[in-house]
Amino acid sequence: MAKFLRTNGISDNLERIIEDDKGGRLLLISPYLQFSDRIKDELQRQDSRKRDIRVVFRENKLRHNEAEWLATTNIRTSVREPLHAKCYMNESHALITSMNLYEFSQQNNDEMGILVSAEADPELYQDIKREADRILELSTEIKITVTRVGDANDDRPADQPDAPVRVRSEPQTVLPEIGFCLRCGAQIPFDTERPYCNSHYRTWARFGNVEYEEEHCHACGADHDTSMAKPLCLSCFRKYGSALRAAG
Predict the structure, then answer these.
(1) Burial class of residue 176 (count of CB atoms within 10 Å of its CB; 0-12, 13-18, 19+)
(2) pTM for the full model?
């Protein structure tokens, strides 16, 4: 059964979600980022174990200190400007809350949240996972690089620790892992060579008409006129076209 949490309980369970040593993906969705030292230490520990860690945030809300730290890790970062949701989840629990992944919020704000167990509430957990996956798929993956720059009126060398910092976010679009059947919209692995669920692929293969009009975009699942020849809507083609060409 879902569990109601106040501020302290949210912080405690957030740490437990990050500390989970069972492996699997860790997904952290928060518009604002300011990691406490404790969370940074644990994320670094998980990162050193090659865990798949994904963070989605609003690019214009990234602080310099957080950018510098993220640039030293293998944590995969994505940006989505309309983001307002806060969701933290691993393979066993999902935490939906008002709390940003922000140290001040954890220490000073009155927050509320709901903790959902994949084992106790599988249906609710899957609903949360589907929406979290949707947000992740609609976000743009970036590579954060940080360069220290000297100030025009400053005699300090640019490589000194207290020199000013320039943060650069380089778009790095990757293909989604989850796709949608062109005909029924069911979730399936993303594969533009076979953008159908098993049953509808068999139906399509009887005739093999690559121009036959279907109803869903393979990338976002929305209602669009698509086909085996053109399985993506225009918006998704613009987003993933270069990545598809690079993948061959």
Answers:
(1) buried
(2) 0.62
